[in-house]
């Protein structure tokens, strides 16, 4: 579409008097009133004439192209603005520039700009995690196949919603003119209407949905309760056949609720979340029907449009204030078109790491209204253009989405998708935790492999340590969990040749290296308390074994660690006696570790130093307390080699 009607900012055009104004001020008026094509003509004349283009002109020219979906020309002017201002261009412009570069297949330059901007930001870790997941996804075989649908029109068709008996309801501008509808003045296209069709029946001609209560303006983006008794839809504010505007002359969008009777809508009422000063749209019900997710540009959000949620009463009315889904989901860019099934949130975004334009993401809904790291759905769902309004059935194996990618029939087209069988037989999910503190381990690496296919996927946990993996059928799958300065853990899961119920709440524990190692100057030692031996003996006592198990644990958790054992005594007794006794104790300690399964090559030496390396002033003849002598009676387990960088 030239003006993206699927976005929730659908405003009322006000007639402006522009005689006597400068070219730039006239362009500004066109821009302010969303007449982007006219604004482009004037801004382009100014930009092509001046050597040093004003930031304001560059900004509005780039935004005008972006808003009509011309990403190629938008990228040209955002790039010029970036050259002039660098990272002072602002996060919102960085997001738009990156999306335009990706739309032009300039992925490498897009990543350079993105990573440079976020290099000192906490958000960088999330972006890198999303990129690693997407890179891994693009290397694997496609899990879904996409089909074009014959009912798409030359105009815009999008926002499908499941209806009854295999049919869907969708939004379109296809034939409002011939049906007597009004013209949307800004782009001379029809207003959006709702249509119903049966996608699997090629002979079914889409027909108007609930024509009894449709307005002469925009009616779009619906969600229907499971029993098909209630519907929520997006529409303009209007009264007595005329659009209603707020004090700024803008007609925003609202979500209304109605009851369904034999395909008609009755008892329509506006939800309490609505306000003429901002838009609400793209409603989506939770699986149990108790929550409503929606998109809005209400004040206090994170970006251009955010996703919110409210609780519903049994009669469908709103009983809680809107709650923003927070920074895990919402960004400085655009988040829209939520869809929820079985505690998984699907939505479209251009602020998360993707392939270009709006991409479809998914995030697991965690108790207490938290959300896992949004991950890109990959191909065929996403392209370098806008991909959005995905819906999927409760078996996660088929559904629909819309896109303006190349090769379509119209401005936006609806596509069907279905899972390729038998692709994956088990969804395996859980959380990675710190073995010492029991806290989540964010952004831990996971490698998934099996003897038949080799390495099949690389992904990361989210910021709360959660992960979800789809395991292939009939395989002995090995999942290796690891992170820099943490231990490594392998989990094996055997799948059958048939789909299995999801396996959830699988906890994996990783040990932090820094919690079992202490620094002594430039030397690293395994952290232990003093190891006690009986007087004049070198055999391992029960008390000594408690501490040696700490050494054993450290070497088991980090198989690449090699150590040397150094034993020391205090100054009491003869020098030669102490030297011999400490050496016996060091070698006794080595034998204990070897007997417990530690490979001999991992203990490079076990040496006693007697009283030659005292750490205080308690040498021969110096009067010291028992406690002062005790600190000299020690065994050190010095780390000589360790590989703690992820693999």
From TrEMBL:
Domain OmpA-like: 520-643
InterPro entries per record: 6-blade_b-propeller_TolB-like, Bact_OuterMem_StrucFunc, CarboxyPept-like_regulatory, OMP_bac, OmpA-like, OmpA-like_sf, TPR-like_helical_dom_sf, WD40
Domain of life: Bacteria
Keywords: Cell outer membrane, Membrane
Main location: membrane
Localization (cell): Cell outer membrane
Annotated protein name in UniProt: OmpA family protein
The organism of origin for this protein: Maribacter confluentis
Lineage, highest ranks first: Bacteria, Pseudomonadati, Bacteroidota, Flavobacteriia, Flavobacteriales
């Amino acid at each position: 579409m030239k003006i993206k009607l699927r976005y929730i900012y659908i405003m009322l055009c006000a007639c402006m008097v522009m005689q006597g104004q400068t070219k730039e001020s006239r362009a500004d008026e066109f821009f302010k009133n969303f007449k982007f094509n006219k604004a482009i003509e004037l801004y382009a004349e100014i930009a092509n004439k001046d050597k040093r283009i004003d930031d304001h002109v560059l900004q509005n020219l780039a935004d005008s192209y972006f808003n009509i979906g011309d990403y190629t020309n938008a990228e040209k002017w955002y790039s010029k603005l970036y050259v002039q201002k660098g990272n002072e261009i602002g996060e919102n412009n960085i997001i738009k520039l990156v999306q335009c570069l990706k739309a032009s297949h300039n992925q490498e330059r897009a990543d350079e700009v993105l990573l440079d901007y976020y290099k000192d930001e906490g958000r960088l870790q999330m972006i890198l995690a999303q990129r690693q997941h997407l890179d891994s996804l693009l290397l694997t075989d496609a899990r879904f196949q996409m089909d074009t649908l014959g009912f798409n029109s030359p105009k815009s068709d999008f926002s499908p919603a499941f209806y009854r008996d295999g049919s869907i309801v969708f939004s379109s501008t296809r034939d409002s003119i011939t049906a007597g509808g009004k013209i949307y003045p800004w782009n001379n296209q029809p207003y959006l209407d709702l249509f119903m069709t049966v996608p699997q029946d090629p002979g079914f001609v889409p027909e108007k949905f609930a024509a009894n209560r449709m307005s002469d303006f925009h009616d779009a983006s619906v969600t229907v309760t499971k029993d098909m008794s209630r519907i929520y839809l997006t529409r303009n504010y209007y009264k007595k056949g005329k659009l209603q505007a707020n004090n700024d002359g803008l007609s925003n969008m609202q979500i209304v609720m109605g009851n369904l009777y034999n395909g008609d809508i009755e008892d329509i009422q506006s939800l309490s979340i609505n306000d003429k000063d901002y838009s609400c749209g793209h409603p989506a019900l939770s699986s149990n029907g108790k929550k409503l997710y929606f998109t809005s540009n209400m004040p206090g959000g994170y970006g251009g449009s955010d996703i919110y949620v409210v609780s519903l009463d049994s009669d469908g009315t709103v009983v809680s204030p809107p709650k923003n889904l927070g920074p895990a989901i919402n960004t400085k860019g655009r988040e829209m078109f939520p869809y929820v099934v079985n505690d998984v949130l699907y939505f479209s975004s251009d602020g998360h790491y993707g392939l270009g334009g709006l991409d479809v993401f998914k995030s697991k809904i965690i108790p207490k209204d938290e959300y896992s790291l949004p991950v890109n759905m990959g191909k065929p769902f996403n392209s370098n253009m806008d991909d959005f309004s995905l819906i999927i059935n409760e078996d996660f194996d088929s559904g629909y989405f819309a896109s303006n990618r190349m090769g379509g029939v119209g401005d936006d087209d609806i596509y069907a998708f279905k899972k390729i069988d038998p692709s994956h037989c088990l969804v395996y999910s859980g959380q990675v935790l710190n073995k010492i503190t029991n806290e989540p381990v964010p952004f831990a690496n996971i490698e998934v492999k099996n003897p038949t296919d080799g390495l099949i996927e690389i992904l990361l946990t989210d910021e709360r340590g959660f992960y979800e993996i789809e395991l292939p059928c009939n395989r002995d799958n090995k999942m290796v969990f690891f992170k820099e300065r943490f231990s490594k853990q392998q989990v094996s899961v055997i799948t059958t040749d048939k789909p299995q119920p999801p396996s959830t709440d699988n906890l994996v524990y990783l040990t932090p290296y820094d919690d079992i190692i202490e620094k002594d100057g430039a030397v690293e030692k395994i952290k232990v308390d003093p190891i006690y031996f009986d007087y004049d003996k070198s055999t391992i006592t029960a008390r000594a074994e408690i501490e040696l198990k700490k050494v054993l644990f450290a070497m088991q958790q980090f198989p690449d660690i090699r150590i040397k054992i150094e034993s020391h005594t205090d100054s009491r007794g003869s020098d030669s006696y102490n030297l011999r006794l400490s050496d016996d104790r060091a070698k006794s300690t080595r034998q204990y570790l070897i007997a417990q399964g530690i490979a001999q090559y991992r203990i490079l030496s076990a040496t006693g130093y007697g009283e030659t390396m005292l750490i205080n002033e308690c040498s021969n003849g110096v009067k010291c307390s028992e406690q002062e002598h005790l600190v000299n009676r020690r065994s050190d387990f010095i780390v000589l080699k360790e590989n703690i960088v992820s693999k």
